[in-house]
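Q: What changes when zinc ion is included in the input?
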Amino acid sequence: MHFKYTPKNPPRLGDGECRSLRVSMSLLLRKSFLHKCSRSWARAKFLLITVALLQFSMGTRVSAASDYRLAIFSADVTIPLNHRCMGVLPTKSKKIVDPLYAHGFVLLGAGKPIVFCAVDWCEIRNGAYDQWRESLGAAAGTSRERVLVSSLHQHDAPVTDSDAAELLEDVGLKGELYDEKFHNETVARVALALKDSLSEAVPVTHLGLGEAAVKRIASNRRVVRDDGGVSFGRGSSSGRNPFYADAPVGLIDSMLKTISFWNGEQAVLAMHSYATHPMSYYGRGGVTSDFVGLAREQRQRDDFSVKQIYFSGCSGDVTAGKYNNGSHDHRLELKERLYEGMVAAWQTTEKVALKEISFRNTPLTLDYYQHENLKRGRLETTLNDESATVEQRILAAMGLASRNRVEKRQQPIDFPCVDLGAAQIVLFPGEAFVGFQLIAQEMRADSFVFSIGYGECWTGYIPTNAVFADKFHDSWLWVNAGAENRIRGALERVLMTNSRTP
Ligand SMILES: [Zn+2]
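A: The predicted holo structure follows.
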């Protein structure tokens, strides 16, 4: 049990209110004592007791309203034209179909601030991931493990990894993975937006919890072929092939979950999570937040007073492949179905008083994938090979950067959980497969577990034991079999704690 645990603060009067109450109390007392008329000491004592009682009752009442506050921020994170998408796509950005955003919020009043940030990017890895967390953490006045950054994983959007970028620069490929100047400026802009938001933080008194089944979006990559063999070939737009369109849905989590934060009767923010890859089609150079971002923006237009934030859940093995043929019309249909899921989840919302927020983090160590193609020598050869394609060399740099992280720096992954009492929010690394969020829900069947995927993304796919047993392999896989056992352990450390009453 190595988790860092911040015990919740006892309810208390906000500093400002304490001060003003103390001032008015001393003024009242001074007035009573200085009064030269026939007011007796007994009367002053009565006043003293009355004010003390008033302070006690106000303290009890005010504490519920002012313990926790929430500050909302947003910033544009759209990549420039001629920028690499998905790390290794050959077609760079040709046009901006719709802008990319970072949407986030800061929770205040539960010890050091806790930050959530959902980014319309494909992946943020290694040094770049720490750069995001450290910059936002510094802006919020908190430490980096309390900054939960997640990419939504759209593919016409960037992958950033400062360690891989450094390796690429050494072989003359500076800027090929991503534009580092743009990246630094973007992180600074998001951090500034966060900092500016703090002065407009609003009290939060209640949580809203809602969920609804999403229809006809998600399907598992795994299909059983006619010869009985297993394939994980159902990609995002596989629906154009009748075999993939007709194959059973497979393992998914059909529920879209929404946690909302309220200031009394006014909803302030709704955060959604649904487990599916977010692409309808990609690789044509049209930068987009895709159907998930479009659904979020449509939902936002329903009511600008309630901030809408979307996170992708654990969806490494879930795509829209059964229902999507990659056409523009299908993108709009997927957007509509996800939007309907958000509305339906909202309609089921049940409000509960927000009485506690605690934060737990545990280090998660995942082994590097032991595969012939990922041996250090092989990766270095490809990285240096001028006859290889730029995309192959980028992939080698990414593999090497992650290998260095695991073997040389031995830097574990932060595995944080924000416990809201009635709900727990868990941030998973990389492309955790959907089985992981189902495991988390099973562990806390008594509660409302909200899973976010695509935190630290150096791992690529993170299959469960069952998927490794099916001999899953992919060039976007950097973790070894056995990851499930480690993640189960981490989940137990952050989820199965004191918040359960015996
Ligand atoms: Zn993916």
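Observations recorded in class: The radius of gyration is 25 Å.
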